[in-house]
Amino acid sequence: MKKFNEQATADLFEKGLITENQFEEVKAYRSLNIFSVNAELKLFLYLSVILFTSGIGILIYENIDSIGHIAILSLLLIVTVVCFFYCFKNSNGFQKTETQFDHPVLEYLVLLANILTCIFIGYLQFQYKPFGEHYGLATLVPTIVSFFCAYYFDNRSVLTIAVTGLAAYIGLSVTPQDLLNNNDFYASESLSYSAVVLGILLILWTIYSNRIVLKTHFSLIFLTFALHIISIASISNLLNHYNLIWLVFAVVLAGSTFYFYKISYELKAMSLYVFMIVYGYIGANIVLFRLFENVDFSDIWELFFFLLPAYFIGSIVMFIKLIKNFHKEIAE
């Protein structure tokens, strides 16, 4: 890595992008061997929030009979209010552009307050049902709070919770594993359409936000959710439907792949590019299988047996080549 950095600095100097004095200053700074522990400290802060909220959940589960519901809810509410009060007091207020707290710990206090809000509302609904049988409201309310906090405090982690809550409100689990295991797209076509519509809405909101310059750095989060939701919903229906409806989802997946191919170059987002290729490759193979599933290949099955390893090896080589070319193009 050190040699790579030195070569990159030398290339900048040779191209005339930095002066000789700047080149010498960069070399002198790197010779000090100073390194940052900022990422490690933030990781520990994040783990602290997760462990604290997990501990609260375990405490509630193991002592619910002895502590009492009112006491637990009161404690949750007090801690949540204190966290929010401290964050609002020390925030710089809402701004359309990217902002940060003066102290990084406050960012994780916002995350803590938001998670506690979700726990409080969920526990309140489970025990006392203030929303009646409208359980969706118990999901929608913390989702709205999460969106507000994400935009007001400029917090990406809270935004992830907000989008997850929005997907849960329409009946989706948005992690790739949950989408494959828990969402019965085959049994409910409306759920499939809802997933695709949600993904499209996230894309449209991203486009609109970029036009009005509203938290444009949130784009990658929205687009990542949209890519996973649309692609996995489409692939699931390519596998499960045995009528012509699978052709609709094939077109949706093709359109999604083309769009995310373009946007990954615009944002220079490696993560979008890699998942776009993976989903597109899986979808293309499923479509080919569906098109030829009724064709009798019994006479040439030996040829397929020999060609299959070459096909997969070629796919791996092509995948690596695409990634290298992408990295080269966005680096220039």
TrEMBL record:
Record-annotated membrane-spanning stretches: 43-61, 67-88, 108-128, 134-153, 158-175, 190-208, 220-238, 244-261, 273-292, 304-323
This protein's UniProt keywords: Membrane, Transmembrane, Transmembrane helix
One Pfam family, short name: DUF2157
Keyword check for Membrane: yes
DUF2157 domain boundaries: 12-158
Key word Transmembrane present: yes
Domain of life where this protein originates: Bacteria
Protein name: DUF2157 domain-containing protein
Organism name: Flavobacterium crocinum
